[in-house]
């Protein structure tokens, strides 16, 4: 379960020392998601965001640290496209959202590492939180968040759904 670590992994960026929570999660030192990794590819990892007030809010996280999209390689973009396609299909099959959002800002301190948010507009989605307002679902306490058991169950189902999609 994600929590601000006592021992920080430090990186140097623009002469400013900062913690990268995505790097900590990718290394297994301080995982963000309570569920298992849904996909672990050559360049990207897919996990459920936590804490989240919306079941199915996924993160597609680059394995290596970079903070700008123009640093991505062609191979990273190719795998990202395949992941995005397969994740959207798996979410449709498991949660049946009427629509999905895909976004990348990587601006919040500690989360500048390139990652994409996959936000399913399921029946539980509040229509008063359209577009970027949906990020309020990530501003919940652990007590208000979706139960970890439900997240784990969904991660397992999505992983199974995606298991035959890659070589």
Note the topology.
Elements: E1 10-13, E2 16-19, H1 21-27, E3 39-40, E4 44-48, E5 58-62, H2 74-95, E6 99-103, E7 115-121, H3 148-162
Explained architecture:
This protein has 167 residues and is α+β, with helices and mostly antiparallel strands. It has one domain: HIT family, subunit A (2-Layer Sandwich). The chain is built from three helices and seven strands; from the N terminus they run ββαβββαββα. The chain has helices spanning 21-27, 74-95, 148-162; strands at residues 10-13, 16-19, 39-40, 44-48, 58-62, 99-103, 115-121. A five-stranded antiparallel sheet has the order 3-4-5-7-6. A two-stranded antiparallel sheet has the order 1-2. Helix 2 crosses helix 3. It is globular and about 35 Å long. Mean pLDDT is 90; it is low at 1-16.
Apparent shape: globular
Distance between the termini: 30 Å
Number of domains: 1
Q: What is the topology, as strand order, of the major beta sheet?
A: 3-4-5-7-6
- Tell me the name of the CATH class: Alpha Beta
Tell me roughly what share of residues is in helical segments: 25-40%
Q: What is the string of helix and strand elements?
A: EEHEEEHEEH
Indicate the CATH topology.
HIT family, subunit A
Per DSSP, the total helix count is 3
Per CATH, the superfamily is HIT-like
Unreliable residue runs: 1-16
Radius of gyration of CA atoms, rounded to a whole number: 15 Å
């Amino acid at each position: 379960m994600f929590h601000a670590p006592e021992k920080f992994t430090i990186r140097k960026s623009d002469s400013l020392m900062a913690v990268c929570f995505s790097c900590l999660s990718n290394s297994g030192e301080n995982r963000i998601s309570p569920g298992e990794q849904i996909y672990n590819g050559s360049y990207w990892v897919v996990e459920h965001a936590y804490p989240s007030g919306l079941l199915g809010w996924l993160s597609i996280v680059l394995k290596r640290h970079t903070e700008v999209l123009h640093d991505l390689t062609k191979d990273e973009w190719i795998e990202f496209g395949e992941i995005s396609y397969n994740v959207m299909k798996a979410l449709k099959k498991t949660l049946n959202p009427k629509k999905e959002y895909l976004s990348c800002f990587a601006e919040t301190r500690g989360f500048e590492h390139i990652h994409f948010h996959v936000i399913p507009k399921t029946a539980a989605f509040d229509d008063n939180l359209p577009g970027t307002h949906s990020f309020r679902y990530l501003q919940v306490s652990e007590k208000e968040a979706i139960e970890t058991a439900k997240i784990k169950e969904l991660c397992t189902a999505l992983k199974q759904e995606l298991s035959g999609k890659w070589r």
